[in-house]
Design a protein that fits this description.
mainly alpha, 6 helices, about 0% strand, globular
Length: about 170
C-alpha cells in the first residue's frame, strides 16, 4: 500500500490528536474515560479512510507512543486492552456480520473479556474490589459508548469526509 504525502500528513495529524487525548487523560483525571474514547475515535477515522490494515498499524503506533509518553501507566493499559482495540474489533464485527443482534452479542463478549483482562491487569498494581452492580453499570455504559461511536463514525462519513475529499 503506497500512501500519498497528503495521506501521510493526515495520519500524522490524527496520531497527534490521538496522543493528545491519551496524554490529557492522564493529566485531567476527571475526564479519563471520555478522553480515551476520543482517542479511540481517531482509530475509527483511520479505518474509514485507509482500511483496517492501516487502522491496525495506527493502533500499534498509538499504543507504543502512548505508553512512553503518558504519565499514568495504568490508564494506558485501559486504552491498550479496550478503547484502542475496540475500534478494530467493532469494524471487524460490523463488516463481517450482518445480523445486528449477533454483532451486538459478539461486541458484549469482547467487552466482558476485555473487562476481565483489565481487572486482572490493574489488580497487579492496585487492589480493586468488583461488585455485580459495577459490571452491570459498565455494560450499560458500553452500550451507550457503542451507540455514540457509531453515531460519530456515521457523522464523519456523511458530513466531515465529503468536505475533506473536496480539498484532496
Amino acid at each position: 500500500m503506497l500512501l500519498k504525502s497528503k495521506d501521510i500528513a493526515y495520519l500524522g495529524v490524527l496520531l497527534g490528536l490521538n496522543l493528545l487525548f491519551i496524554i490529557l487523560s492522564s493529566v485531567i483525571e476527571t475526564n479519563t474515560i471520555i478522553l480515551m474514547a476520543a482517542a479511540a475515535l481517531m482509530i475509527g477515522i483511520v479505518i474509514v479512510e485507509f482500511g483496517s490494515k492501516s487502522g491496525s498499524i495506527f493502533y500499534i503506533a498509538s499504543c507504543m507512543l502512548g505508553f512512553f509518553l503518558t504519565f499514568n501507566k495504568v490508564e494506558i493499559i485501559t486504552y491498550i486492552l479496550f478503547f484502542g482495540l475496540y475500534s478494530l474489533i467493532k469494524h471487524a464485527i460490523e463488516f463481517k456480520i450482518t445480523n445486528k443482534i449477533l454483532a451486538l452479542l459478539l461486541k458484549f463478549i469482547f467487552f466482558n473479556i476485555s473487562l476481565l483482562c483489565l481487572y486482572f491487569a490493574i489488580n497487579q498494581f492496585i487492589t480493586l474490589k468488583l461488585f455485580w452492580w459495577m459490571i452491570l453499570g459498565a455494560e450499560v455504559l458500553f452500550l451507550i459508548y457503542d451507540y455514540a461511536f457509531t453515531i460519530f463514525i456515521n457523522y464523519y462519513i456523511n458530513n466531515i469526509r465529503p468536505k475533506l475529499t473536496k480539498t484532496k
